[in-house]
Amino acid sequence: MIWFYQVTQGYFWIYTWLLISGFMIFMVMFYSSLIVPLFNKQTPLEQGELRDAIEAFSSQAGFQLDNVFVIDGSRRSTKANAYFAGLGAKKRIVLYDTLIKDLEVGELVAVLAHEIGHYKKKHARKGIAVALCQAGIMLFILSLFIANPLLSVALGAHIHSFHLALISFALLYSPLSTVMGLAMNSLSRRNEYEADRFAARHSSATALGSALKKLSVNNLSNLTPHPAYVFFNYSHPPLLQRLRAMATI
């Protein structure tokens, strides 16, 4: 960023945005295949009842799923989880070995249906687009203030410096960042409800509810968090709210 500023001055934010955008997209596509293997072992899900059930559901849901991997999450934690990673041909579903140990086949398929729901509803792509817009807005606002010597003066300097101005801007941008973070959390919670509805309609609401209960116990989740705390901090709805929402489907 500093080099871009030295070379292009007022246009540095565009080049920085392009660099950050490329890095973000690269990480979304290759994080699971390049970064995760440095710390955990991922192996293709072996043939058997679970694989057959997953493939049957994927075919039923019209979702081409070639890459299902099991990660050895138990080497560091008892937390059970599953996630969807990648885009296009690089997409893959990753199941924690702890998840396979704790859940029945029907429950695992329901959890997988939830992850496929995220893909079907294009949540990952929308999240990337929003994140890129956030980065662009932040950098553009930075470009409007970075040359202002008052930012350096605010930190007690007598000579303007890009480095000090950057620190001052980070402090001043914090409230706006908090507001944008609240919006992102709200969007994430809405996406979770949508993925739950997809899983309930295409798999089993009962099985998904049972799986969520077991995951909540294993992860020591708070069943009754204060609504204000949920609003400010939760990217996922509390368990009881998710169960109530699925009960109406």
Could you characterize the architecture of this molecule?
The structure is a single chain. This protein has helices at 2-8, 12-35, 49-60, 97-102, 105-120, 123-145, 150-153, 162-202, 205-218, 227-233, 239-247; strands at 42-44, 68-71, 82-85, 92-96. It is an alpha+beta fold and 249 residues long. The chain has one domain. A four-stranded mixed β-sheet has the order 1-2-4-3. Helix 2 runs antiparallel to helix 6, helix 3 (49-60) runs parallel beside helix 5 and helix 5 crosses helix 8 (162-202). It starts with a helix and ends with a helix. The relative contact order is 0.11. The model has no long low-confidence stretch (mean pLDDT 88).
